[in-house]
Write a structure and sequence with these properties.
The chain is α/β, with parallel strands linked by helices and about 325 residues long. The chain has 9 helices and 13 strands. The chain folds into 3 domains: about 5-100 and about 200-220, Periplasmic binding protein-like II (D-Maltodextrin-Binding Protein, domain 2, 3-Layer(aba) Sandwich), CATH 3.40.190; about 105-185, Periplasmic binding protein-like II (D-Maltodextrin-Binding Protein, domain 2), CATH 3.40.190; about 230-315, Double Stranded RNA Binding Domain (2-Layer Sandwich), CATH 3.30.160.40. It has helices at about 15-30, 45, 65-70, 130-140, 150-160, 170-175, 210-220, 225-240, 290-315, and strands spanning about 5-10, 35-40, 75-80, 90-95, 105-110, 125, 145, 165-170, 185, 200-205, 245-255, 260-270, 275-285. Helix 1 (about 15-30) crosses helix 7 (about 210-220) and helix 8 (about 225-240) runs parallel beside helix 9. The longest helix is centred in the C-terminal third of the chain and has 30 residues, at about 290-315. The protein is globular, with a radius of gyration of 19 Å. The model is unreliable at about 50-60 and about 320-325 (pLDDT under 50).
C-alpha cells in the first residue's frame, strides 16, 4: 500500500462517532498511513431537541460532512452505515465497509430487564420510527416516548426518568463504548428487526480520489459484511426509504448442501404498529451486485403486498419541522 501525507478524516463529535473514527484510523495506521481527525457538526447534532422524524432531511448526520469532503476540507469520512442515505451526493462513493458488530437492537432498563418482563402500559423511549413501530406491533399497550442525544445522554435521561421503563439502542454502540453491561436483552428479530446496515461502518471518499479509495479499501473493507449490507441497503433504496422510515432488514450468510448465499429478512411496519408487511428471500450472492439484486427483488415483492400503502401513509404523516441549517 502506497503512503500519502496525513489523510484528514471527517467525523461527528459524539463519543460513539469518535470511537468509530479512531477504529478506522487504527486500521489505516496499521497499514502504514498517517491520519488526522476533523470533527464536524451535522444537522442531527445542531437540532438535539427536535424529533428526528420532524427534521426535513434524509442526510441528518451526513450533509455537512459530505460538503466538507466535496470542498476538499477533508479526504475521507467515517459514518455509521445505518445513518448513510442509500443515494449519496454526486462525487462521493463508499470506499469501504467495516466488519460488522452485533446488528441487533438492545433493550436497556435502569437495571436488568428482559422483553417479557416489561409491565403493561410501560413507557419505552426511542428516537427511531422503525423501533417505535415494531414496539407497538409486538406490544400495542406500550407508550412510546421520544428521546434524542448520544448514547451517554440517552442513558442519563433514562436513569433520571422514573416514569420510563426502558430505552432501545443499537447493541453495537453500547458494545463499542464498553457499556454492554447496560443491556437487558439483545432483542430477537421477531420483536425488533434491525435497521439496514446497523452495526457496520462506512468510509466515504471523493469519487475522483482513486488512490484514497484503494488505501481505505485495503485497510478497512470486510467483504462478507459488504455483501450483507448491499442486500439490506438495496431493499431500503427500492422502498425509497431513509433512516427515518419504519423499514427494517437483515441479511445473513447461509451454507447448506455445498451451496452458499444470502438470506434476507425485510419488514415494513405502519407507524401505529397495526400493519406489518414482511418477507424472506434467499439466493446466491457472489458479489455486491448480486446481493443488491436480492434486496431489490424482496422490496418489489413487499411493495406489491402492501408496503407501498404503508410508506405512503408514513410520508404523509411525518411533517418536516426543520430544514438544513
Amino acid at each position: 500500500m502506497s503512503r500519502r501525507s496525513a489523510l484528514r478524516i471527517g467525523t461527528r463529535g459524539s463519543t460513539l462517532a469518535l470511537w468509530q473514527t479512531e477504529r478506522v484510523r487504527a486500521q489505516l495506521l496499521a497499514a502504514g498511513q498517517e491520519t488526522e481527525r476533523v470533527e464536524i457538526k451535522t444537522t442531527g447534532d445542531l437540532t438535539p431537541d427536535v424529533p428526528l422524524a420532524q427534521i426535513g432531511s434524509r442526510a441528518l448526520f451526513t450533509k455537512q460532512i459530505d460538503d466538507a469532503l466535496l470542498e476538499r476540507r477533508i479526504d475521507l469520512a467515517v459514518h455509521s452505515l445505518k445513518d448513510l442515505p442509500t443515494e449519496l451526493p454526486s462525487g462521493i462513493i463508499v470506499a469501504a465497509i467495516s466488519e460488522r458488530e452485533d446488528a441487533r437492537d438492545a433493550l436497556v432498563g435502569r437495571g436488568p430487564l428482559r422483553w417479557n418482563e416489561i409491565p403493561v402500559g410501560a413507557v419505552i423511549a426511542t428516537s427511531s420510527l422503525r423501533r417505535r413501530a415494531q414496539l407497538l406491533s409486538s406490544r400495542p399497550d406500550l407508550r412510546v416516548a421520544d428521546v434524542r442525544g448520544n448514547v451517554d445522554s440517552r442513558l442519563a435521561k433514562l436513569d433520571g426518568r422514573a416514569d420510563w421503563t426502558a430505552i432501545v439502542l443499537a447493541t453495537a454502540g453500547l458494545v463499542r463504548l464498553g457499556m454492554a453491561h447496560r443491556i437487558g436483552e439483545r432483542l430477537p428479530p421477531g420483536v425488533m428487526l434491525p435497521a439496514p446496515g446497523q452495526g457496520a461502518l462506512a468510509v466515504t471518499v471523493r469519487a475522483d480520489d482513486a488512490a484514497g479509495r484503494d488505501l481505505v479499501r485495503q485497510a478497512v473493507h470486510h467483504p462478507a459484511t459488504a455483501l450483507q449490507v448491499a442486500a439490506e441497503r438495496a431493499f431500503l433504496g427500492r422502498l425509497e426509504g431513509g433512516c427515518q422510515v419504519p423499514v427494517a432488514a437483515y441479511a445473513d450468510r447461509y451454507s447448506e448442501a455445498g451451496r452458499s448465499g444470502l438470506q434476507l429478512h425485510g419488514r415494513v411496519i405502519s407507524l401505529n404498529g397495526e400493519t406489518t408487511v414482511e418477507g424472506h428471500s434467499s439466493g446466491p450472492a457472489e458479489d455486491e451486485a448480486g446481493a443488491a439484486s436480492l434486496g431489490a427483488a424482496l422490496a418489489e415483492r413487499l411493495l406489491a403486498q402492501g408496503a407501498a400503502t404503508i410508506l405512503a401513509e408514513v410520508r404523509s404523516a411525518v411533517i418536516p419541522g426543520v430544514t438544513e441549517p
